[in-house]
Amino acid sequence: MTAKKAESAPYRHGGDVWSATWDGKIPMEEILDLSANINFLGLSPLVRQAIVESIDQVVHYPDPKCRRLIEALADHLTVPPESICAGNGAVDLLDHWLHAVQARRVLIPEPGFGQYERAVVAQGGVAVPLPLDEKRQFRLDVEAWKKALREEGCDTAILCTPHNPAGWVWTEKEKQAVLAHLESSPVRLLVDESFLDFLPDGRALSCCPQASENDRLAVLYSLTKFFAIPGLRLGALITDSDIIKGIVARRDPWVVNQLAQAAGVAALADRDYHQKTWEQLPQERNYLFEQLSKLPGLTPLPSDSNFSLLYVAESGISSTGWTERLRRRGILVRNCNTFLSLGERYLRLAVRDKAATDRLIEAMRAVLAEEGML
Q1: pTM surpassing 0.85?
Q2: Which EC class heads this enzyme's classification (predicted)?
């Protein structure tokens, strides 16, 4: 393993539709964005209504205590309000938590969300990669994780479930094994649950109840993915109330704007939207998996979330090649070459509806035909 403390290369994130349309060659309405893992249902009608009804309130400063939002989050996550801190997206809260616990050597799964490393390095810490086994489809090996914590001398760890970019979710047994390790070691753990709402039984696998009572355990929760509001930036951190108080005391008091607070309350209350997602996602995900599996040289990995990791090496086209050629057809996919262990061999694709998948498959077939593979 190679720990990282020096400045990292710039991290590229999915969802940059602005760069794709900047030169005016492709109109925004013609872009199919599969590079960001956002709910295919789009904006909830209740959220849209809440935003419209809150427009006139932007003449006032937003509630610095996010009272209505915190109450809604406490009910949704089944934790005390004092153990919740709302923020300008999950990444904002990642930075604050790392600073609050003074993380120094942080064990991070690789491949994993690039902002983990960026945040650790920005705080003056050392990011220690934990290589996930490609033969196991990058699933977490809890024993290997515990061994790495010990041998690398890490005081902090970050885990993600469902895992980004591989899409697996940990089992109850794996969860309990990880939590049990915290009882016998001084390690602090942040569990990123940004995609857990996409599972109907996700709350049962959440660490939120435990995190609200433990100053060495925290959970990152995002509302932007499941509720399709990335442009509003909204997330939450769940941990011991004393740590929450410390974070709130040192940051901007108006970090969550009024429209985001109103949208969050409405989103959490829209049970029909939740249920519709849980009913339709498995069908759309399976359809994407089946269609990709039919294409020569392409191998999708099974996923429990709303995205799929796609192995493209056998197609003879690099991930950068695929990204550029699909982009010319108005389709954005996540080039996984920014995940160090994936190189030019993988793409990540968001699950969308059947029409979007059919458009993707048609474009991929055209690319493969150009290469003489069809």
Answers
A1: yes
A2: transferase
